[in-house]
Specification:
The protein is an alpha+beta fold and about 150 residues long. It contains seven helices and three strands. The chain has a three-stranded antiparallel beta sheet with strand order 1-3-2.
Length: about 150
């Protein structure tokens, strides 16, 4: 799917459009859910012969994916804000692909352990106190233009 998106972006680039994309970084601290998911490779490894999608979060990988294009990448911060860590986890487990798929790939004991890890990580990074979840999360903002 990402390769198809890259080809669409390149087609837009050839037409002279400026393109901006965002993704989670691999060089800065991950959002709490991604840190816990990355620790469970049995649930998240890509199929044989494919590279991890997590590698897209680097400027070097984007330059590989968009050869001959001008790539500028900067790290930005998005702050997750939610009612509580439990509510945030429920939303991510229901709607966010990596969390949803990882949870679905695990047995019941694995799901319980993942939930405990995610709630612990959210609590560790939470700046909102007991009544709210406020977690800053870095991401890579990239602009790709014709060279």
């Amino acid at each position: 799917m990402f390769r198809r998106c890259c080809s669409i972006v390149l087609r837009a680039r050839r037409s002279g459009y400026e393109t901006a994309i965002t993704m989670t970084t691999t060089t800065a601290p991950s959002p709490p859910d991604l840190a816990a998911i990355k620790e469970r490779p049995q649930a998240t490894n890509p199929p044989a012969g494919l590279r991890s999608p997590a590698l897209r979060g680097t400027e070097a990988r984007l330059k590989e994916l968009f050869p001959g294009q001008w790539v500028q990448a900067t790290t930005q911060t998005f702050t997750f804000r939610d009612r509580s860590a439990a509510h945030w986890l429920d939303v991510f487990r229901t709607w966010y692909g990596p969390t949803n798929r990882t949870s679905a790939a695990l047995d019941t004991a694995g799901q319980i352990a993942l939930e405990a890890d995610l709630l612990a990580l959210a609590g560790e990074h939470n700046r909102g106190g007991p009544d709210a979840l406020i977690v800053p999360s870095p991401y890579l903002e990239a602009v790709i233009m014709k060279a």
